[in-house]
Amino acid sequence: MSALELREVVKTYGSGHAEVHALRGVSLSVAAGQMVAVMGPSGSGKSTLLTIAGSLEDPDSGEVVIGGRALSGMSRNDKARLRRRAVGYVFQDFNLLPGLTAAENVGLPLELDGTPARTAHAAALAALDSLGLAGRAGLFPDQLSGGERQRVAIARAVTGERSVLLADEPSGALDSVNAEAVMRMIHDACKRGVAAVVVTHDAQLASWADRVMFLRDGQVIDQTAPQPGPETLLTPGAQQ
Amino acid sequence: MSTALRERSVPAPVPARAGGGAPARRAVMRWAWRLFRREWRQQLLVLALITAAVAATILGAAVSISTPPSLSATFGTASDLATFHAPDPHLNAQVAALRQRFGPVEVIDNQVLPIPGSVDSYELRAQQPAGRFGAAMLALEAGHYPAGPGQVALTRGLAATLGLRVGSQWSQGGAARRVTGIVANPQNTLDEFALVAPGQIRAPSQVTVLFNAPGLTPATLGQNVQDLASARPPNAINPQTISIAGLVVGMLLIALVAAGGFTVLAQRRLRSLGMLQAVGATDRHVRMVVRANGAVTGAAGALAGAALAVAGWLAYRPSLEASAHHQIGTFSLPWLVVAAAMVLAVVAAYGAAARPARAITRTPIAAALSGRPVPPRPLHRSAVPGVALLAAACALFALSAASGTGPAEYQGAGARADRAARRGDPAGPVRPDHGGPAGPPRAGRGPPGPA
Amino acid sequence: MSVRHALLALLSEGPKYGLQLREEFEARTGEVWPLNVGQVYTTLQRLERDGLAESDGAEEDSPQKTFRITAGGAAELASWLRTPPDLSAPPRDELVMKVLVARQVPGTDVREVIQAHRRYLVQLMQQWTRIKDDEADYDLSVALVVDAELFRLDALVRWLDAADGRIKRAPAQPPGPAPAALPRLRRRIGVHQ
User: Fold this and answer.
1) Contact assignment for C33 to A239 by CB distance below 8 Å
2) Which helix (H) or strand (E) is A90 found in, with range?
3) Chain B CA closest to residue A83
């Protein structure tokens, strides 16, 4: 059973001559432990795909199934619970609430789900510590660097045994060192069983995924083949 | 920097109650409080509005309650007052009957005497300085109270009129007395009289008896008996009621303006609120945050307004005492109005924040995150209620003009009543044509008659 | 690519024999550029001929023949490290050629061609990234070389995206020949040293 599944999702914005067909029947299936990258030019519908998969928006038609549960029959409260327990989201630039420290931000979904503040704080500290950010736990977002903010955001998205991670250009505003660190974190989460969908226009970041899907004008036009083992790359023959 | 994978040490979350329960509320409120502390400047306008309204209401109520002359100018601390006109053969018997029925009474004798060389007259009053009920009506400003025959104390104005000082000799009506002090009626500083010791007036023109008859209507006791309720001018609306009515109207207006202010605030916070929802906060949490912000702003405004009102009151009270002609206690603020104003401020602000709270939870989360508020639906409001209210207002204006009881009439009536009372007109003060109120009873004078 | 200077660099550490040079070269470049033994010996002979290296005088083609760097070789190596390579002449990139041609061949959907290449490049990059993930923490050379390859492939993908965008916005029919009035220039790019 796939951790996340989209079936023929359609989404249109606007009306009349200003109508924008963001998604025209997109289907996608991600198993646990898999990372799928979605590449495409701007306006191809990548971000809409992610917001619909993350229950932040409702599709006009089609199904979204997370962990076997369809989103279409869910109340708003059920969807909120889903976002607390099953789905973690990482945005490109604005992720952390400014009024809370890094640790409080990471522990927020746990607290919203009923975990007492102290337990949530301990869990948050443990998560930040495992990512090398223990020293920054008590700082506010405006005191952190961009790379640190993104890593804290990912920590928040994976804390609490969530099964799906959705990232929209998570390294978009970062330099290559921080970008690679962020992708490694997502990759490590996948090794632990998280199903991840990463939207990006950067091929280097997309190359971290098990499967890359290409989106254009709201439709999937292509996707990469399953990967062979790495040893096939190094065939004899000098590359001059 | 090594990001080598370590075993995940995140503990499993405690099984949650529906909606997250108390920890969720605490987390949301913690964020809301931090937000308020960081961004309180954005709410200064609404805060200032609420502060101003609360302060204005409290001050207005305090002034309007304290300004009218106090009934204790004539009643002292008693609840009932009986007036006997002299000469009355049954006076002593009736006083004894009152004493027997209601316990201790206080008797004040009055005699109106002309001021030599003037058309004005003054009042000679025999009253116990530390009387049971009348102590509130006397205050010593200089010298000492008259103790026995040959001693008199004058009010400052009367002393000036007669050209006397403490220690002067004063011949009056055949009696020679020495001025022993300057006194005043703190409850009515316009009250000019000469005070002598009890029993020093042989032929009083009027005797006032103060007593307490709780629970009995004065009519059952006699024609000449009044109590605090019957002595109040009829048709006079309790100033406290007016203040609270004004406060309610004011708060409604403020709530409307504040709703706009809170809406703008909520729009500014749209991204943060969207993020909160993306992390899993329910609609209830979001509404709670926005409304709590309203409540906190209301509470802050209420506190600031009350503090401002108290400060203003302390500053203004002395000049108010002078213009109202009676003593006003330092802390005689209408505490009921203060409490009501503060509570209403919080309620109004909380209510004003309710609409933006609902609007935010209707915005799709993705739109909130990108900071794009959903364009408001066009509103169709009928003009009928407004026109109807306007017509009603015009009708009321026309009605009051036709009946002719405008302010000018009242002032004229009041002045005429005042002069008649000073002259001791036995017919009582002239009543205006339309039967309007003619003021509370003056100390020692007869009641104004059926109004 | 300049193998001779890489061998000179290895020799600058100390005298080495031919097979050793080949093994060290491959190890130090992350096993990404395999080297032919014959190529090694030919290069060493040329170095000796140019006076940049010298051998210990054993017979020709003995596996034990040790080579040593000379003073002239050290100077040549230092100078080479600092000399920027000639990047001014764009190589005849086969991928660029394919896309240019696809525009002219009737019945060809250029964007479909571009997507096919894009997919292929991304698949390659996926494999390189897996190598980097596995080995980059332990071997800095591997990290550097794999990074270089990833950036190179990434650049091609980005060019494909740009080409895609330009073609999408361009008018439908292919443009005619340049107006005859403009003189045809042979373009030369260069940077004054």
Assistant:
1) yes
2) strand A87-90
3) B280
Regarding whether B332 and B224 lie in a shared domain, the answer is: no
How far A94 CA lies from chain B's nearest CA (Å)? Answer: 8
Based on the fold, state whether residues B100 and B155 are members of the same structural domain. yes
Give the structural domain span for B180.
Answer: 72-231
From the list B361, B362, B357, the residue with the least C-alpha distance to B295 is B357
- Judge if ipTM > 0.90: no
Average confidence (pLDDT) over B84-108: 83
What chain C residue is nearest to A232 in terms of C-alpha separation? C127
Both tokens assigned to B206: 């009027």
Contact list in A for residue B1 (CB cut-off 8 A) is 132, 181
- Measured in angstroms, the CA of A160 and the nearest CA of chain B are apart by 6
Q: Does A119 touch chain B (CB under 8 A)?
A: yes
Contact at CB, C128 and A39, closer than 8 angstroms: no
Closest CA to A172 of A56, A52, A53, A42: A42
Average pLDDT on B373-397 reads 75
**Residue A102: pLDDT band with limits 50, 70, 90:** very high
Residue B283 domain flag: yes
pLDDT above 50: residue C64:
yes
Q: What is the mean pLDDT of chain B?
A: 77
- Indicate if B62 and B88 belong to the same structural domain: no
pLDDT in tens, A179-238: 888 899 899 999 999 999 999 989 999 999 999 999 999 999 999 987 665 555 543 333
Sort out which chain A residues have CB atoms less than 8 A from C164's CB and list them.
41
Pairwise CB contact (< 8 Å): B24 & A127: no
Q: Angle, to 10 degrees, between the axis of helix B21-39 and the axis of helix A117-130? A: 70
Domains, chain A:
4-94+149-227 (3.40.50.300)
Residues A198 and B81: their CA atoms lie apart, in Å, by 90
Percent of chain B with pLDDT over 90: 4
Please state the φ and ψ torsions of residue B351, each to the nearest 5 degrees. -65, -35
Q: How far is A51 from chain B (nearest CA, A)?
A: 7
